[in-house]
């Protein structure tokens, strides 16, 4: 016989887990595709990413995280964790599944979000949410995301201390004890955060120095999902399409710094990590992408 939650936060968590938020439209055209591709480093000579008239014009798969910016969550952070302060929230992990290839370069999509779990870390809370994105006309799944938020100062509510194991979405992905099979250096532009934010993440700490300082940073930093996209592009360019990709954010990147993506191939799995060339500090760890192989499905 199960017991009822013992406090308001646990009650709110129990009520919210698995509940779908209202459907939210996410509509985009070729312009948004090109803007995203450029925002994660596509260059003017890569016509398949930056010119809508190219025969191979396409979306870099990590585009699938963008519907999360407009998702309507079926809960409030204030209700599920104590002492919530948005300036204390860090993007801890991101998992993306690409469920349909080729990804349309323009489409009307529908996204629905849900709360997966909340973990009590004592001095912090870990909030994990899911987002399913479908094609509005066909109803087919296009993307699925899981986002992990680490919220400092919001633990200690007698919640679950052990996160669930959900396979690829939570795997640790330790690199093999050998030199990387491939290394890609991607120099970011000093204006890259200003470009990337136009794809939907308008958090001012990425553009306004005063907000960056409020968040504990000396100056505006590059979006974590921009670093994620830079790594995703490096894998896509080298190994082709992947059906899922998962990362854990370990540190920040300043606009203008160089992202070094180190990759190890283990069959259809690419284990990778990213570091900042100028400092040697890690930006992404515990990361992997699972390759698709031949793509036959079409929208």
TrEMBL record:
Tell me what this protein is called.
Answer: Putative Multifunctional beta-oxidation protein
GO annotation (BP), single:
fatty acid beta-oxidation
A single GO CC term for this protein reads: peroxisome
Task: Provide the Peroxisomal multifunctional enzyme type 2-like N-terminal domain boundaries.
Answer: 26-153
Q: Which CDD domains match?
A: HDE_HSD
Q: Give an example GO molecular function.
A: (3S)-3-hydroxyacyl-CoA dehydrogenase (NAD+) activity
User: Where is the MaoC-like domain positioned along the sequence?
Assistant: 174-285
- Which SUPFAM superfamilies does its entry note? Thioesterase/thiol ester dehydrase-isomerase
Pfam families according to UniProt: MaoC_dehydratas (PF01575), MFE-2_hydrat-2_N (PF22622)
InterPro entries documented for this protein: HotDog_dom_sf (IPR029069), MaoC-like_dom (IPR002539), MFE-2_N (IPR054357)
């Amino acid at each position: 016989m199960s017991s009822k939650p013992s406090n308001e936060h646990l009650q709110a968590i129990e009520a919210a887990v698995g509940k779908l938020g209202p459907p939210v439209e996410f509509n985009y055209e070729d312009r948004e595709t090109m803007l995203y591709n450029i925002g994660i480093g596509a260059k003017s000579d890569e016509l398949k990413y930056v010119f809508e008239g190219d025969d191979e014009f396409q979306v870099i798969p990590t585009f699938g995280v963008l519907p999360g910016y407009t998702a309507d969550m079926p809960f409030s952070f204030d209700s599920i964790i104590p002492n919530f302060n948005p300036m204390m929230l860090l993007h801890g992990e991101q998992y993306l599944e690409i469920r349909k290839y080729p990804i349309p370069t323009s489409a009307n999509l529908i996204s629905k979000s849900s709360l997966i779990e909340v973990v009590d870390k004592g001095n912090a809370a870990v909030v994990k949410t899911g987002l399913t994105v479908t094609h509005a006309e066909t109803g087919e799944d296009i993307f699925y995301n899981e986002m992990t938020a680490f919220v400092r100062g919001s633990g200690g509510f007698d919640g679950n201390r052990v996160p669930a194991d959900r396979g690829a979405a939570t795997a640790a992905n330790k690199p093999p004890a050998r030199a990387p099979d491939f290394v890609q250096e991607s120099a970011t532009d000093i204006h890259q955060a200003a470009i990337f934010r136009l794809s939907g993440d308008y958090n001012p700490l990425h553009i306004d120095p005063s907000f960056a300082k409020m968040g504990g940073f000396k100056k505006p930093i590059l979006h974590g999902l921009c670093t994620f996209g830079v790594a995703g592009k490096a894998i896509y360019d080298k190994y082709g399409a992947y059906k899922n990709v998962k990362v854990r954010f370990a540190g920040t990147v300043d606009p203008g710094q160089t992202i070094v993506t180190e990759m190890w191939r283990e069959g259809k799995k690419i284990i990778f990590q990213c570091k900042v060339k100028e400092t040697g500090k890690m930006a992404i760890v515990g990361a992997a992408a699972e390759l698709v192989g031949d793509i036959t499905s079409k929208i």
